[in-house]
Amino acid sequence: MDYEPWDLGSPLYRKLVISAMVLIGVGILLSIFAATAGVQPLTWAALAFIITGLLTHLAGLVVRAKDARARHAAAQGRKNN
Prior knowledge:
Number of domains: 1
Number of strands: 0
Radius of gyration: 18 Å
Distance between the termini: 23 Å
């Protein structure tokens, strides 16, 4: 049976993924508003939100990889016993 990363993800992974999506979404909305209103400082704030969201997403990938290694090691331990 195949599982999606979300199914096997830890609560920390899920929080990081949701946070990343929210931050990137806010950044995109701010960017659109800044472009239509012509507010240059808001463009930089939007970029900061998007970059923070991408970094949060990368942190989620690191957590997911760590969790996968732990699951794999546990499965190998059960297999060897």
